[in-house]
Every structure is written in structure tokens, then in C-alpha cells.
Amino acid sequence: MDRTVDARGLVCPQPVIKAKKAMKDMTEGILTILVDNEIAVQNVMKLGNYSGVNPSSTKLSDKEYQILFYMEKGAESVQKNTLEECAPDSRKKGLVAVLSSDQMGTGSEELGRILMKGFVYALTQLEELPETILLYNGGARLSTQGSSSLEDLKSLEAQGVEILTCGTCLNFYELTEKLSVGTVTNMYEIAEKMAGARLVIRP
User: Where is the UPF0033 domain (predicted)?
Assistant: First the structure.
């Protein structure tokens, strides 16, 4: 029996989780998954390929994509967990990006914020993504509610990039409850990550 899963408006890993759950309830038929961004398309397609259901995708409009899973008896079971399905192997081992401000450069604060937003977006487009992104001092604002870089950081996290924000900094700026991507870290781990990095990039 055919089935449709509407995952529009959801960020990874939610579309993958919803598709995976629907697959468990189906033995035959066509499973249609609707999403609204290309990252979700890539991750759901990857789930379909792992599962042996001959997935195909179609762009219906600027913000609507359709993915079809052709369910058949005996299809290969899913071997990867959800986080692995959302983490394409495109990270560069030992590459750490350090964001210590929500602005890039000095001079105009407004321009600095525009440049930082562009830099974080540029990270999402690299052929080799950072393994870890460290955010501290003013950079802690980037991973919190209301940040213009939040969706780009979520996209990076969905692809397996570790996002770590300084807990002391969140407390100082009274943003602890507004952290919206990644996890809280401490200065020891920040020092450890930087000391163990093969390459550290700073905007």
C-alpha cells in the first residue's frame, strides 16, 4: 500500500527518522517523502540507497522536493544509524574552524556581521568540511536562537560536523537557554581540540 510522509519544514535528522519509521510499516508499495531543502533530499536519498529501495528524487518547486522509495519484499535492511545517514563522509580529519566573534574583521560592525554570515555559508560549500567548529566569546551568538547563521550551522551539523559552543560564554551573554545547534563545551575541550588539530582556520 502506498504512503506519503510530509517532512517539509523539518531539519535533519527528522526527515530521515520519519522516512525510516514509515519504511518499517511497509512491505510493498511506493513511499513518497516530501521535503523542502536539498540537504534533506541528499540525506533521505542516502537512506534509500542504503536500504536498497531504488530511490528517485524530483524537484517540484523552489522549496518542494519529492523522493520515492520503491518498497519490495526482501529489501536490504538499514545498516546505518540515523546520525550516520545524516553525515556524508566529507569532513577533513583534523580541520578545526574557530569562530571567536559574530563579526569578521574590524571597522563596520554591520559589514562584519554580513561577512561572518558569508564565511559560515562558505564553510558549507567546501569540498572538505571542518571536522569541528569551535564557538566562543562573541562567536557563541552564532549558534543561538535568532542567529542569521543558524541554518548553515545546522546544515554542517547534519553533515557530521561537530559544533561546540563555550558554556562560559553562553552564560556570560545569558544565552544558555537559546543554544539551538551543537552542544556546550568547556575551555579544556576547546584547548584539546585546537592542540590536536592538523589545521586551524579563523575568519
Answer: 5-29
